[in-house]
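User: My collaborator and I are trying to settle a disagreement about how two of our proteins should look. Neither of us wants to argue from intuition anymore, so we agreed to look at predicted structures for both before our next call. Could you fold the first one, then the second, and keep them clearly separated?

Assistant: That sounds like a sensible way to settle it. I'll keep them separate. The first protein:
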Amino acid sequence: MTENIFVDGLGKLHVAGGAARLEFFVMLPSSQDAEGHPSVAPRLRVVMAPEALIHLHAAMRGLVQQFVARGILRPMEPALPETVPEMPEVLAGAGGGR
């Protein structure tokens, strides 16, 4: 059986040891940060080879195109930047800043 894991978003992306590491988080509605936003906690880390990341990128582009075609999403303008900045603020206060 395949396990389903729910996440609210992507927290950190980085390269370590020649592998891409994608860290996902969940929101904790019972806990809030200093600004009153729901706190977040790390939920899942996916570590993949560069080749797998390339395949994931192509698959995600196709998935986004399906959502756009169905009217669920609108195309993003401008296009995403070439690099993704670190997002430590997403995991601030959640014990995820490693």
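The second protein, kept apart from the first:
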Amino acid sequence: MRPSAALFTEDLFATGSDDDNRAAVLGVAAEDLALAGVAVHGPRGDVDKVLKGLRPHP
């Protein structure tokens, strides 16, 4: 299994509704989205290899 990833933008947290959040993100051009976080899922060893050397946000 290869690790999969998800990006979270500030717009995803603008409302309390998943449908409204998705609509808010779709209404913004890709280059204007503000990155708020990244999620990576997969076997621990594979994820560790993907993230090796990255520094967590303080």
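Some points you might bring to the call about the second protein. The chain is about 30% helix and 20% strand. The first helix runs from residue 18 to 26.
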